[in-house]
Xanthine phosphoribosyltransferase (Oribacterium sinus F0268), 193 residues
Amino acid sequence: MKLLEERIKADGQVRPGNILKVDSFLNHQLDVSLLEELGKEFYERFKDKGITRILTIEASGIALACCAAQYFHVPVVFAKKAKSKNLDGDLYTSTVHSFTYNKDFTVTLSKKFLGSEDKVLLIDDFLAVGKAMRGLIDICKQANAEISGIGIAIEKGFQCGGKELREMGFPVYSLAIIEEMTDEGQISFRENP
């Protein structure tokens, strides 16, 4: 998606260790107009899949998932990283490793919000090695829910996550796939497979 690629080139910051900061528009400060366009693009890609739920992990994926959900007219549910006192009843749980924080999280989702009747679109802001997405896939498997698609804003194509998920048979659609990032700030993109 050229709109997102241009915004990444204009406002993204490459940091050592293959880190791309897009906090000025995607995951700290939010450009809602941009997010609406991204959500619309996910809708165009997956509108014929019978989506009944959009699932993401807190926190950065929530805004993007909500913008997509307004086009699908379905609820957004998100796996929580923190245990809270208001989580009750039966829970799905999965352990995910955060590339950004270099830390494992046990994510939880109440069983009342996802079931075998659901056709799920998984959405997240980034895909690097795919640990967060594998956690969401695990939760969907526990629920016997059908994964109808995976929508990613920015995929680091030089890392293994997208390739592995596609090889597993999941329909992965990334709006921007980064082919290469240099420490000097140069970013190149490739087309979505």
Remarks:
- Strands lie at 13-15, 19-21, 53-57, 76-79, 91-98, 103-110, 119-127, 146-156, 172-181, 187-190.
- The chain has a mean pLDDT of 92.
